[in-house]
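Weekly modeling sync, notes
Attendees: S.R. (lead), two postdocs, one rotation student

Agenda item 3: backlog of single-chain predictions. S.R. asked that every request posted to the team notebook include the full sequence so nobody has to chase files. The rotation student volunteered to paste the first one in as an example of the format we agreed on. Action items at the bottom.

Example entry:
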Amino acid sequence: MCELLKQLEQLDLGLLTLLSSDDPNIEEIVQKVDIREQLLHELFQAPEKRTPERWHHAIERTQLIVLEMNKHTDKFASKIKQLQHSKKSVQLYKKFQ
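Predicted structure, as returned to the notebook:
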């Protein structure tokens, strides 16, 4: 199996594990989604590295990931707002030091 597809599969399993937890780590999910996007881009650039069966499995995992992310959308949005507010507060604090 292609190394890129192996990396994608491992990354997807990690993402699904994170998403299935009661309190998923948003920053870690964002990081893994960014890496996943890069891997997919590399796979699109080299179609010879994709086997039909493995590619089909990747598509199925993508659908599962999207479903899990949709379940957490409101929770994610709230936490992202909290993170952004915290970062702005720290920036303001540093500005007035």
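Discussion: group reviewed the output briefly. The chain is about 85% helix and 0% strand.
Action items: rotation student to repeat for the remaining queue; S.R. to check formatting next week.
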